[in-house]
Write a structure and sequence with these properties.
Main location: membrane
Order of helices and strands: HHHHHHHHHH
Family: Belongs to the binding-protein-dependent transport system permease family. HisMQ subfamily.
Subcellular location: Cell membrane
Protein name: Amino acid ABC transporter permease
Keywords: Amino-acid transport, Cell membrane, Membrane, Transmembrane, Transmembrane helix, Transport
Shape: elongated
Structural class: mainly alpha
Radius of gyration: 20 Å
Length: about 210
């Protein structure tokens, strides 16, 4: 317990950093992922091409490489942002490709007649997608989105290697101060467990409230 009690402030700062990264990157991933899912099913070929390229490139790029591109590559082009914001961009963009495919799979479960009925009433593609298709699609993909965001929370550990304060980065300080390696990692793992269980509980509640009964 000494590792935790004597370094509670350090663990707290790291845990809060991981929470911030997870929340901000999740919001970015959800927003971009939904937009890209809309592009993937759009009647305009150019938009479908953008959505397909976004998913193909990001899903097949190692997350660590994306961090290098964001944190080391963008400053060379004059983009100067805090490292934490670069980490949010890397995590959010990477995860958005998985959110996109989850949402697209949900869109495909909505009967085609729903969209045709909306268009027969004079609704545009955007109106049909936003008011008819997506509300139904989300009900079927709550669990996959929850699993994706849990993965995002764990992937945030990579940010610690790029001078971003988060839970795993506390290990460096603890190691330098001579604390037991095993117990240092035990408390770090417990922090990630608390966070992932919280996300899991939230999405279980959402699924019970809005999920499609199977």
């Amino acid at each position: 317990m000494d590792v935790l009690t004597q370094n509670f402030a350090l663990y707290g700062e790291g845990f809060w950093g991981t929470v911030r990264l997870t929340v901000y990157a999740s919001l970015l991933a959800l927003a971009v992922g939904v937009v890209m899912a809309g592009f993937r099913v759009a009647p305009v070929a150019a938009l479908r091409g953008v959505g397909t390229a976004w998913v193909t490139v990001l899903r097949n790029t190692p997350l660590t490489l994306l961090f290098f591109a964001m944190l080391l590559g963008l400053p060379r082009f004059g983009v100067a942002l805090p490292f934490e914001l670069f980490a949010v961009l890397a995590l959010g963009c990477y995860t958005s490709s998985f959110i996109c495919e989850a949402v697209r799979s949900g869109i495909n479960t909505v009967p085609v007649g729903q969209g045709e009925a909306a268009r027969s009433l004079g609704m545009t593609f955007g109106q049909t997608l936003g008011t008819v298709v997506l509300p139904q699609a989300f009900r079927t993909v709550i669990a996959p989105i929850g699993s994706t965001l849990i993965a995002l929370a764990k992937n945030s550990a990579i940010a610690g290697s790029f001078s971003v304060v988060e839970l795993l980065s506390t290990y460096k300080t603890l190691s330098e101060n001579g604390y037991n390696v095993i117990w240092s990692f035990v408390w770090i793992a417990l922090g990630y467990l608390i966070l992932t269980l919280a996300i899991s509980g939230l999405f279980h509640a959402l699924e019970r409230r809005w999920g499609v009964a199977r």
